[in-house]
Amino acid sequence: MADVAVPVPLAIPNLPTPAGAKAEVGAAPATPSSASSSSTPDVAFLDTPLRAPFDAIGQLFDHLRANPAAAEALNATYPTRGVFKAAAVRNGTSDQKLTVDLSPNRLSGVPDALRATLAPHGFDRVLEFFGALMTQHLDPVMGALGASAAGEGSNSGIDFAPLHRARNVNFRLCDYTPDTAAPQSENGCGAHRDYGTFSIIFQDGTAGLEVESPARPGVWLPVPADRVVVLCGWSAFVLSGGELRAVRHRVRRQPGVRRLSAVLFVAPDLDVVLRPLPTAKQTTRFSNAVTSGEISVSWFKEFMGKRWRYREGNAQLEDGERITQDVDIERLLLA
Ligand SMILES: [Fe+2]
Fold first, then answer.
1. 320 pLDDT exceeds 70?
2. CA 198 to centroid of ligand 1, rounded, Å
3. Dist. CA 275 → ligand 1 center (Å)
4. In angstroms, what is the span from residue 3 Cα to ligand 1's centroid?
5. pTM higher than 0.90, yes or no?
6. CA 208 to ligand 1 centroid distance, Å
7. Could you list which residues have their CB under 5 Å from ion ligand 1?
8. In whole angstroms, what is the distance from residue 96 CA to residue 189 CA?
9. Residue 188 needs a FRET pair 20 to 30 A away by CA distance; which of 25, 112, 125, 280 works?
10. Separation CA 174–CA 11 (nearest Å)
11. Distance, CA of 222 to CA of 211 (rounded, Å)
């Protein structure tokens, strides 16, 4: 697997230490209590010749912003949450970004006629890219993560493949445009961990993505802007028994600078029960809800999504709680 950097992981401490890394202001450090050794590849770079079509991605965002009818037609194909999300244009306190959220499932609901109108505006090139990314890298990355999570002295590794047969994946495009309700805000995407197994993030060369140092919670390390990065999420954390950490990350905006990214989210199948796999090292004490098998992926996704949409400005929390998503998830998962 010469194209996958995971077997020779670049764990968080190996990322370049930021000059003047600044402590996170006003947020309590939240770390899985079991933070495992720094040699696990819960953050890794992916060496790939594949390039995200950032010209097409920028073109698609420009088209949807300039043509409300096109955006409305696309959002009507997924009325539950929409596809093109632009809350940041009106809301200065939410994440200051625009997103396009697609998935194989949602694409099946896009009529051919609509797709034909979007095709020349970058849509088809974006879909070609995600198709190639899944074909070339999804299984190798998952295999490498599973092999690495077995711990020293184990031959077996963790076989994630049987839990990912249905391709519960999402395609996300992000436009950290300066043209939002709060042009000077540095908040592109608030600190969080992803819910799934892993995410593959392509960046357009503009700095902004940061991961939290596991050794120094609250210290943020910039990810080199020209690398493709693989980050593990909560599902990997539970399934691996805590061996793979869910990596806390965020995006900081540089006022006046546009940044584009393309992310493939890979999660277990919706009916999978989230608990440590038998072959996983048990490095973490999980809650009764986890160990007794009460938490399915579909339930967990919904639970996290509630907090998420609040942060992203696309919904209000019904209960009005202002608890951070990380603390909420830790209470749920950990003993
Ligand atoms: Fe994320």
1. no
2. 10
3. 22
4. 23
5. no
6. 13
7. 194
8. 7
9. 125
10. 25
11. 6
State the number of CA atoms in the 13 A half-sphere of 334 facing the CB: 19
User: Tell me, what amino acid is at 25?
Assistant: V
CA of 250 to the centre of ligand 1 (A): 7
Interatomic CA distance for residues 266 and 297, integer angstroms: 12
Counting every residue written for the chain, the total comes to 335
Residue 202, phi-psi category: left (phi > 0), alpha (psi -120 to 50), beta (remainder): beta
CA-CA distance, 283 to 261, in Å (whole number)? 34
48-93 pLDDT, tens digit per residue, is 999 999 999 999 999 999 999 999 999 999 998 899 999 899 989 8
How are beta strands 198-203 and 84-85 bridged, if at all?
Answer: unpaired
φ, ψ for residue 158 (rounded to 5)?
A: -105, 130
Positive/negative CA dihedral, 17, 51, 264, 314: positive
Contact between 283 and 178 under an 8 Å Cβ cutoff? The reply is: no
Query: How far is residue 43's CA from residue 233's CA, in Å, rounded to a whole number?
Result: 10
Closest C-alpha among 177, 328, 156 to residue 240:
156
Query: What is the H or E stretch that residue 148 is in?
Result: helix 139-148
HSE, side-chain direction, 13 A CA sphere, residue 92: 5
Measure the CA–CA gap between 101 and 140, rounded to whole angstroms: 24
